[in-house]
Design brief:
The protein has two helices and four strands, in the order βαβββα. By secondary structure, it is of the alpha+beta class. The protein has a four-stranded mixed β-sheet. Helix 1 packs across helix 2. It is globular. The N and C termini lie far apart (61 Å).
Length: 100
């Protein structure tokens, strides 16, 4: 059983996962499922500590639904990273044009 220290929201979870990703960790291997009477819950490890964080207060009816929710979170993280990189490239391009 995973001892829960804290429940985090999806924005906080994305921040933790981004730290793991920057270290080259496989994000698919980080998630843990825990089954209880209401259903399955998702957990990820904290990057700066040795605690497990529960992702939201939501329970999922089965493993497939829980893992699909985690996949959706990873897709959202990936989209955020792509948007950040493309806006960074745009601002660099605009700055170089202004300097010319």
């Amino acid at each position: 059983m995973i001892a829960t220290v804290m429940t985090i929201n999806l924005t906080q979870a994305k921040a933790e996962l981004k730290l793991w990703q920057q270290q080259g960790k496989n994000l698919l291997a980080l998630v843990k499922l825990q089954h209880s009477k209401p259903g399955f819950s998702l957990y990820i490890p904290g990057y700066r500590c040795n605690n497990w964080y529960r992702l939201s207060n939501r329970y999922y009816c089965n493993q497939q639904a829980a893992l699909a929710a985690y996949g959706k979170l990873l897709d959202s993280l990936s989209a955020d990273i792509c948007n950040t990189e493309s806006s960074s490239k745009r601002s660099t391009h605009i700055s170089s044009e202004a300097a010319a």
